[in-house]
Amino acid sequence: MPETRSDEERKMIIEKVNHLYETSDLTIKEACSEFGISDSAYYIWKKHRNLEPETEKEETSNQDRENTSGDVDTETVKKVTELKEDKPFLGFKKISKQLAYSHGIKISTRQVKKILKEHGLEETDYPEPKDHPSRRFERNSSDEMWMMDIMHYTIEKEGRFYLISILDDYSRYIIAHGIFKRKTIDNVIDVLHEAFEESGLPGEFLTDRGSQFHSWKGESRFQKLLDKLGVKHILASPQSPQTIGKIESFHRNIQRELFGQKHFTSMEDVKKAVSDYIEYYNHERVHMGIDYLTPADRYYGVKQDAEKTYDV
After folding, report:
1. Beta partners for 153?
2. Residue 262's Cα: distance from chain center in Å?
């Protein structure tokens, strides 16, 4: 961060870092990187402004020391342990937020950690995946912009397969997906048709410069289809691959939360498990990046009643 930052600008950045740190599983260093500063600059700025770091969190922690898991009712303890056993990849903060969302249960991160430790589940806690630092951007409402990406995974006997996904930028809702043995333009177009038939048309469509989406010699089939439908195609800059970071993050999550947890030997099992996971992801799994709502909450909460017509 340039040293020409004013005191007011530094104070604002410090407050944003503090808020992200206090409401997520990120460390101070990781929270700083989200706003383009080093952790050393953060502490220097706080010292000069005489702002004690983590004041609110320390006060909360002191209260939590007095309010241990012994004060939590049996039903809440059961909910904590059941959620951890069912979703072992969830961190302490995510369990706390998920219980608040799904059951209206208010329980601190420290209490969750203590309960899991007492039940021998603490060692299964996985750190939350962290995105690469990038400049944050987000559209203002659902269907303003979708993005598409392809990931691959290899299973025993069946070999490699590809998951093609479409995600709404504003809500992180998965609009459509498909699983295929090859990542061909035909398969990409199939997923596009499914998305358009289910949800109408977005205003813009963001992809990387993969051969399925972009051609260096004239327009690709993908681009021609979007042009015909009046959808603006945006290509991620080669120098800034982070622009499709939201859907890449989704693919990292499914690698970690599904493929990293279960053993698959057939494509039929994979297809069912992925469909079930996306249903869970869209409608049940709270998302830190959208204030611990589910993608469906955000997508349908602002979705326009009048959708564009899909007619190809």
Report:
1. 161
2. 20
